Amino acid sequence: MARSYGMFRAKCGHEGCTEFARYEAGTRKHYLDLSLRYGNGKWRCVRHSQPDEVLSSTNTKLVNELRVIVDDGHSYWGKERASSGFKHGPGFKAFAEDFPEGTVLRITAEIVPAPSRNALDKERG
User: Fold this and answer.
1) Distance in angstroms (rounded) separating the CA atoms of residues 23 and 39
2) What is the mean pLDDT of residues 108-123?
3) CA gap 104, 87 in Å, rounded
4) Partners of 112 in the beta sheet?
5) How many CA atoms, within 13 angstroms, populate the side-chain half-sphere of residue 102?
6) Could you tell me which of 64, 62, 56 has the C-alpha nearest to residue 113?
7) Among 18, 87, 103, 104, which residue's CB has the most CB atoms within a 10 Å radius?
8) Average pLDDT over residues 98-117
9) 45 near 16, Cβ under 8 Å?
């Protein structure tokens, strides 16, 4: 079995962020390619590369919609173009072929904050 060349560790280039990613390089060339692509602060963590998709105390609800798109006689989920015939997440699984073209799959993620101490005290009376 071939051995891996080594691990490449990329730190998020956003000032003050401590997130990092590890990539396994199979060859020296792959390691150098990773270094060119992600080294010297070029890599960004999800929080800094896709901030609109990160739930937070100020962004408590995200809604994503996919629709059934028929392409070459097969049904797929997608936004503007066909992506995958099967989507799944916590508590759901959906095959695009089970629905007519144009059907919308709406996926919602919402943060429900814990009740504050004052609200608990009022509730108890």
Assistant:
1) 12
2) 79
3) 12
4) none
5) 0
6) 56
7) 87
8) 93
9) no
SS3 1: coil
Give the helix/strand (H/E) hosting 78. strand 74-78
Residue 124 has pLDDT above 90, yes or no: no
| Burial readout 87-124 (b: 16 or more C-beta within 10 A, e: otherwise) | beeeeeebebeeeeeeeeeeeeeeeeeeeeeeeeeeee
Residues 6+ apart with CB under 8 A from 38: 8, 10, 21, 23
- Dihedral sign, Cα of residue 33, residue 36, residue 40, residue 46: negative
Contacts of 92 (CB under 8 A, 6+ apart): 107
- With a CB cutoff of 8 Å and minimum separation 6, the contacts of 124 are none
CA distances from 61 to 2, 64, 71, 97, 110 (A): 45, 10, 31, 29, 4
What is the per-residue pLDDT for 115?
A: 85
% pLDDT > 70, the chain: 90
Residue with tokens 């800094």: 48
Report in angstroms the alpha-carbon separations of 40 from 7, 37, 44, 53, 124. Answer: 16, 9, 11, 25, 54
Residue 82 pairs in a beta bridge with: 78
Q: Which helix (H) or strand (E) holds 80?
A: none
